[in-house]
Each structure stands twice: as C-alpha cells, then as structure tokens.
C-alpha cells in the first residue's frame, strides 16, 4: 500500500482587483438558480447548485427552460425539491429546447431584469460553463467560477493552479453576483427531495420581449451515451484508464470491469485524444470533475491535469507498472503491476454487482 497526499495552500485576495466596485452590492435578498433537467427530472448538478444557494440565506427562484411535457414535469418536481425554493420560473419555448448558450444567456438577462436578483448560480457543468460567462457579459459583471465553498454572501473559495491551491475571493462588484459551483463540493444527501414539503409556486416567464438572435452559432445535433453504466459525474465508483491501454479494443477491459462493479468509465485526456473513448468520458481539468466513493486508475501516470479532476475521491486505487508514477503520491492504495494481468484477474475473482 502506498499512501500520499497533496498539500493545498490557501491564497486570499480581494476580487476588487478585477471586479468593478458598486455601492449597490450591499443589497442581498434573492438568488436565481439556473437548473438543467432531462426526462422530467432535475439533474444532480443542479440539485447541488440549489444546496449551495441555501447557504446564502436568501429566497431561491429556480429557472427552467425548454419545451414539451418533460419541462413541466421537471417544474413540478422542482417545486417540492427544497423548502427554500420560493418559486419556479418556467420558460416554455422551442427556442430553449437545445442547449445553445446565446438564447439561454439572454433568458437569464431577461429574468434578472424583472427579478433583480442578488445572486445567480449554476452548476459548473458544460452547460453552466457555456451559459454563465455570456450572461455575466450581458449583465456587465465578472463571474466567479468553480466555487467549492461559500463563506458568506460576498466571500467564496475556489481552486487555482489545477487544484494545488485554494483562493478566497471577496466579491465587491455590482449585483448580481454570478457563480458557478463545483457540484462535487456540494453533495446532495440521498432522498433529499421532500415530497411532503410545501410546494413552491410555478410561474411562466413572459417571453413577449425575448429576442432570438442566435449570433454566430446554431444547433447541429446532440448525442447521449445509451448504456447501463451510471453517469460519470454522479457515479459512486469510477474505473479510469490511460494511454497505457494502447487502443480502443483494450479499453473494453475497463468497461467490463466497470460493468461488474456497477461503476462508470473514465479516461485521461491522452486516452481520449488517441481515440480510445469518447471525450465525454474525460476526467481532469479540461474534462469532468468527479468525487466518487471509489476511484480506480489503471495505467494512469498522474499528470496534474488529471489529478485536478479526481483528487477529491474518497478512496483512490492506482495500478501502474511504474513504481515512481506520480499517481501513487495521491493514491490510498497502490499496486505496481501490469494492468493486462491485474484486470483479467479482477474480472475472474470479483463477484457480480447486484
């Protein structure tokens, strides 16, 4: 067993260095959460955003957009998700059925004009990273991204230097304060949806003045991974592979082990760039940030960009034939060995996931 840890430094500075000052920032009253939904259900990262918003001690409005029955099913579910939610705002239009950032950013701007929110929060997912900076530009404020802790309504903690240091940022700009939060830092307890809590009101957003100017982007297509494996961002177990697997055919060893353990498949950027797996399975600074209960890394050296995406995992197991690989410095358990021998033996001896 090889034990190790990476020391994190905390750096404090004021956001006034890059955020405009305004006396209006003293008013904090309500928070708007931009929520994602699919199949009539609020996505897990958005539930984390709601949980983060509750720490601001303000009333919460939830914004949902899209079209069709699934939108209204999601709104119905959201109305009883948390007692702090005072209202659910629904923008029902075909203009929002696709995740294009431009119309969504304009929607956030429109809703804020009528609501006057002190904070606007979204999960730091691909969707949130795409929409919130554009919304911030329209509102002429600077966003604070990838927040891992909310100290108070003005003060936030976020990682820098690929997670090797944490900085405390104090927002001194004008309202609204726009945040994206790292969902793994705000885990939602199981069975957190209280169906017995009083339901929030559901209101339609007035889109009569909405301008659908899409600029230079247009929707082409959207694909989803259709298999029995859990979603990578929310899985309790993640099995990841690196470039050492050599090709896409060998990567099926990772997939077979993930199926046996009931976990999700992850990969390094090198494996994705080599075409072994799709890019939505990439874990790391430029991929997905995960924090499962168990993370098993096969043939992963431990580049800082990859560690930034998984170092918050509860238990990290590393298998690598190089005893000096950096991954062993953060692993709770390490095995120096050939993954092409280790994985088949695990597949043979591990029981099926029930």
Automatic annotation (TrEMBL):
InterPro entries per the UniProt record, alphabetical: DHS-like_NAD/FAD-binding_dom, ETF_a/b_N, ETF_a/FixB, ETF_alpha_N, ETF_asu_C, ETF_asu_C_CS, Rossmann-like_a/b/a_fold
Subcellular location, record wording: Mitochondrion matrix
Pfam family, one: ETF
Annotated residues for binding of FAD: 243, 268-269, 282-286, 299-306, 320
UniProt cross-references to SUPFAM superfamilies, sorted A to Z: Adenine nucleotide alpha hydrolases-like, DHS-like NAD/FAD-binding domain
Annotated keywords: Electron transport, FAD, Flavoprotein, Mitochondrion, Transit peptide, Transport
Role, per record: The electron transfer flavoprotein serves as a specific electron acceptor for several dehydrogenases, including five acyl-CoA dehydrogenases, glutaryl-CoA and sarcosine dehydrogenase. It transfers the electrons to the main mitochondrial respiratory chain via ETF-ubiquinone oxidoreductase (ETF dehydrogenase).
Entry similarity comment: Belongs to the ETF alpha-subunit/FixB family.
Protein name: Electron transfer flavoprotein subunit alpha
Source organism per UniProt: Lupinus angustifolius
């Amino acid at each position: 067993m090889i034990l190790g840890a990476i020391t994190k430094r905390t750096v404090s500075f004021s956001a006034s260095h890059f955020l405009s000052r305004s006396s209006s920032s003293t008013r904090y009253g309500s928070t708007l959460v931009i929520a994602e939904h699919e199949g009539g259900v609020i996505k897990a990262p958005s539930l984390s955003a709601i949980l983060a918003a509750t720490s601001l001690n303000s009333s919460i409005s939830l914004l949902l957009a899209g079209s069709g029955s699934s939108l209204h099913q999601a709104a119905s579910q959201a109305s009883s998700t948390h007692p702090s939610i005072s209202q659910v705002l629904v923008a029902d239009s075909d203009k929002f059925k696709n995740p294009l950032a431009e119309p969504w950013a304009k929607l956030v701007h429109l809703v804020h004009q009528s609501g006057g929110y002190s904070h606007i929060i979204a999960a730091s997912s691909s969707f949130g990273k795409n929409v919130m900076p554009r919304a911030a530009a329209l509102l002429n404020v600077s966003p604070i991204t990838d927040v891992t802790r909310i100290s108070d309504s003005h003060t936030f903690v976020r990682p820098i230097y690929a997670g090797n240091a944490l900085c405390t940022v104090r927002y001194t700009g004008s309202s609204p304060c726009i945040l994206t939060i790292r969902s793994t830092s705000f885990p939602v307890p199981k069975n957190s949806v209280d169906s017995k809590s009083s339901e929030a009101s559901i209101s339609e957003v007035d889109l009569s003045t909405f301008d659908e100017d899409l600029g230079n982007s247009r929707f082409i297509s959207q694909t989803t991974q259709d298999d029995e494996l859990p979603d990578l961002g929310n899985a309790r177990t993640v099995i990841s592979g690196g470039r050492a697997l050599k090709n896409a055919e060998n990567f099926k060893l990772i997939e077979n082990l993930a199926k046996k353990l009931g976990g999700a498949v992850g990969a390094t950027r090198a494996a994705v760039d080599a075409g072994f797996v799709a890019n939505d399975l990439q874990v790391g600074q430029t991929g997905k940030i995960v924090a499962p209960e168990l993370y098993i890394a096969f043939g992963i050296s431990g580049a800082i960009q990859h560690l930034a995406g998984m170092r918050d995992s509860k238990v990290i197991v590393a298998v690598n034939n190089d005893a000096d690989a950096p991954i062993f410095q953060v692993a709770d358990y390490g095995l120096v060995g050939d993954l092409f021998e280790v994985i088949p033996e695990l597949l043979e001896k591990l029981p099926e996931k029930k």
